[in-house]
Every structure is written in structure tokens, then in C-alpha cells.
Amino acid sequence: MSLQSRSPRLLIVWHSRTGAARQMAQAAADGAHAAADAMDEALDVHLLAADEVQADSLLEADAYLFCAPENLATLSGEMKAFFDRNYYAVLDAIAGRAYAVMIAAGTDGEGARRQVERIASGWRLRAAAPPFVYRNGAQTPEAILAPKTVAPDVLAQCGEIGGTLAAGLLL
Ligand SMILES: Cc1cc2nc3c(=O)[nH]c(=O)nc-3n(C[C@H](O)[C@H](O)[C@H](O)COP(=O)(O)O)c2cc1C
Q: SUPFAM superfamilies, alphabetically (predicted)?
């Protein structure tokens, strides 16, 4: 059996209905890889859609990034289902690990942010970065349902959050 220790692992869990949160999660993954490369360290970044994540993925990760849209003033149902499915399976097993949250919203996002923060507090996770809420301003049904393209400056901020989580694992 090898005695080699494994690389630290960042798990990014995302859900997206019209593309914004997916791009934000990808930017954070890119930022995490870039930070690890700059430090010349190995980092395992798992970017998983919310419906693919089981308890094992949470248990095997060292830090988490949760990224999803606000839908009807709460987390999107798919992201909530990920938390519902796994909450008690990992309770008490992941306390103290670092996390960050990124919400894609139209004009609000606070309900979804609060929900993730409450769940993370129940898991006793430690916030490694301030919560990030990106608002695209969409208000009409047409604008809300349109595919989204997230601006480069917003993606750069998401990249920084990924980089912060990575640096926290590698320092
Ligand atoms: C069904 C539905 C409900 C929404 N409800 C809200 C809401 O309550 N508050 C808000 O700020 N944005 C709301 N939005 C807008 C989205 O949060 C916003 O467009 C977000 O950027 C979408 O992220 P996504 O492209 O990753 O799905 C809603 C969008 C949809 C499709």
C-alpha cells in the first residue's frame, strides 16, 4: 500500500438553470487551478453538478464551494435537493472544513445566500471568503428565462474565490 498522501481536494457543487451559475462555478474551478499552479502545488478540483453529488464526494473533499441560482426567493430546487439528500449523511463528519458560497440572482439573491449559510452553519463549516451574490438585473419573464452570459469581471471575482479556497488548502 502506498504511504503517499493524496492532494488536497476542493469540491465545487453547482446547479444552473440558464447558465450563469455554471459559468461562475467553472471560473472558480479555473481560479483554483491557477492558484495551485502558481504555488507549484497539486490540487484536486472536483466540479460536480448538484444531482451527481453523493455523501462520499463530500466526505472525501477538504473544502467546498456551493454555487447556484436563487429561484422564487430560495435556492433552486435542484441545489436544495443536493443539501437535503446529503445533510444528515455527513453531519458531524465535515465540521471545521472551509467553504464559500456564490449565488446567481436576478435582483435579490439574499434568500438563497441565507439558506446556504444556515446549512453550512449546521454542518459547522468555516467561511473562507465572504458570500458572493451576482445580480444580472433580469426582471421580465423573457430576460429571466434567457440563456445568460456572465461578464468577465464577474467571472474574475469567482476565480478569486476559487483561488482563495485553493490557497487555504495549500498554504
Ligand atoms: C423560476 C425562476 C425563479 C427566479 N426567482 C428569482 C428570485 O426569487 N430572486 C432573484 O433575484 N432572481 C430570481 N430568478 C433569476 C435568476 O436567479 C437569475 O437569472 C440567475 O442569474 C440565474 O442563474 P442560472 O443562469 O445559473 O440559472 C429566477 C429565475 C427563475 C428561472
A: Flavoproteins
